[in-house]
Every structure is written in structure tokens, then in C-alpha cells.
Amino acid sequence: MIEIPESLVLAEQLNKTVNGKKIVSVETEHTEHKFAWYEGDPQKYDEKMAGQVIGRCTGIGSMVEIEVGEYSFVAGDGTNIRYYDAGEKLPERYQTRIVFEDGSSLLCTVQMYGSMFLIISQEYENPYYLAAKQKPMPGTEVFDYPYFCTLAQGLSKGTSAKAFLATEQRIPGLGNGVLQDILLESGIHPKRKILTLSDEDFRCLYDTTVRLLTEMKNAGGRNTEKTLFGEAGGYETKLSRKNIGYCPHCGGPITKMAYLGGTVYFCSTCQPLD
Q1: When you count CB atoms within 10 A of the terminal residue's CB, does the N or C end of the chain come out lower?
Q2: What CATH number belongs to 145-267?
Q3: Which candidate, 1, 27, 33, places its Cα nearest to that of 96?
Q4: Do 19 and 64 meet the contact criterion of CB atoms below 8 Å apart?
Q5: CA-based angle 114:31:29, to the nearest 5?
Q6: Which of 35-39, 184-188, 197-201, 238-242 has the weakest average pLDDT?
Q7: CA pair distance 4, 252, nearest whole angstrom
Q8: What is the pLDDT of residues 33-90, one digit of tens each?
Q9: How far apart are CA 67 and CA 144, in angstroms?
Q10: Would you say 90 and 49 are in contact if contact means Cβ atoms under 8 Å apart?
Q11: pTM, two decimal places
Q12: In angstroms, rounded to a whole number, what is the distance separating the alpha carbons of residues 135 and 157?
């Protein structure tokens, strides 16, 4: 699943690759997938997009927004975007294909679940989209430490570190994937109650969040995800399903546990619960 680093990388690559290209056709629902969702009637995407020129592409949270005339085409959480040159062999399975005048294509593919929207941005009121558009992203000037502190205001005493970072759209696009390394490098257990952190530990969590997300973006995304050209990102994740084993810091065993709708990985030594 793409998260903040990958959405930013994909947008940057799209701006360099397809910005200014003219769309000649759009194919939707190529491969049936009951968990691939479209906003509006997908059969009308071609009518609305064909003949338009690709404008600015932007990473917002875990989404990638592509300007198409008066519309925005948005690849939401769970939708992978891949670019293919003219004549390059396409995969058999995909959901949406945007074909350009020069014969190249963008393919959107859903694995587990994912969404694609064709919207007029100013009129779209989906709360997840609005949060991604409007809330500050880590690495921007607005996402400073005082702002991070406001995110902890009004939390219940039982709110855990994972819940704080990855639920309620507090930080859109920061999900279960990137938080693993953030919590490891901060020395914080996923179940640690966020309000029990000292001021020093909370500041460390902020600094680590900004630093690691910047490192992930600058490396071209995580190695568990793919770029616009189908290549793995350059950031080597420390904790993920691909490298369960021993802690890179102390050498102790990594624990795998189901928690809050996903799997978490942690080192009990480096990330004590109490």
C-alpha cells in the first residue's frame, strides 16, 4: 500500500513523465475486482478525459491526484500506478488504463482493495480526500512541532502510539507500513499509551517521524513498494513482513502481533511497553 513517501515519489515521477501529455482514451473495469471502487460512473471516464492534457500531479496523503482539464483523477489508497512506454507489453490484469497520444499508458491496478476517482476537486466532499488535501504533511513548514503537539490534544488516556500516528486521519497517508520503523527508531512500543510519553520522548517521536518520512521519500520510497516504473523503492525497511528476524539495533528477536486491524512488528528490548 502506498503511503506518504510513495505518493510524493509517484507524483514527482508523473510530473516528469506524463505532464503535458494528451489523453486519447481511457479504459475502466478491464479486470473485474469487487474491491476496486470508482467514484461516479466509470464508463463515463473516457468521455470526460479523452482529449484532455495532463496537468500537475500531486501526492496528498496516500493518494495521487492528477489534473485532467477541469477534473482531477485520483488514485486512492490501495491503487498502484504504473507507466508503460508505447509498445511495452502490458499485464493481463489491471483496472484502469489511460492511453496517451504517443502510445504510452498509465495503468492503475488494485491488489487487495483500492479506489479511483474522477472528480471536480472543489466540489468533492469526501472527508478522507479533504483531510489529505487540507492537513499539513510531514516535511512541510506547517508540520512543525507545535502543530504535532496539537494532534495530541483531546486524546483519550487509552490512545496508543500506533492509534495516534495511524488512525483518525491525524496524519493522512501515515499508515501501518511506515509507522513500524518510526516507532522502532523512536524506541516506542506500538501499544504504549501516547499520553504517558515524556516531553522528550514525544519530541523524539516528532523528529523521527519527519526524518524517516523524508529519508523514505528521498530514497524513492520503501523497498516494499514500487515506483511508477515498477522498481522497488530504495529505502530499506527495518521492520516489515519482508524482514522479520532480529532487531537491527540490539540483535534481539522481533515480535509479530495483530493489533488495530493490522500487523505490527517491534523489539521488546528497544521498545518497552512500560
Answers
A1: C
A2: 1.10.8.50
A3: 27
A4: no
A5: 70
A6: 238-242
A7: 29
A8: 999 999 989 999 999 999 999 999 999 999 999 999 999 999 998 999 999 999 999 9
A9: 29
A10: no
A11: 0.95
A12: 24
**Class of the CATH-defined domain 4-134:** alpha beta
- What is the distance between the alpha carbons of residues 272 and 274, in angstroms, rounded to a whole number? 6
Amino acid at site 32: E
Rounded to 5 degrees, φ, ψ at 156 are -75, 160
Question: Could you give the C-alpha distances from 130 to 2, 29, 58, 61, in angstroms and in order?
Answer: 18, 26, 14, 10
Domain-by-domain residue ranges, the chain?
4-134, 145-267
Q: What is the DSSP string of 53-113?
A: BEEEEEEETTEEEEEETTEEEEE-TTEEEEEE-TTPPPPS--SEEEEETTS-EEEEEESS-
pLDDT value of residue 168: 93
Contact (CB, 8 A) for 71 and 33: no
Query: CB within 8 A of 80, min separation 6: which ones?
Result: 2, 108, 109, 110, 111, 114, 226
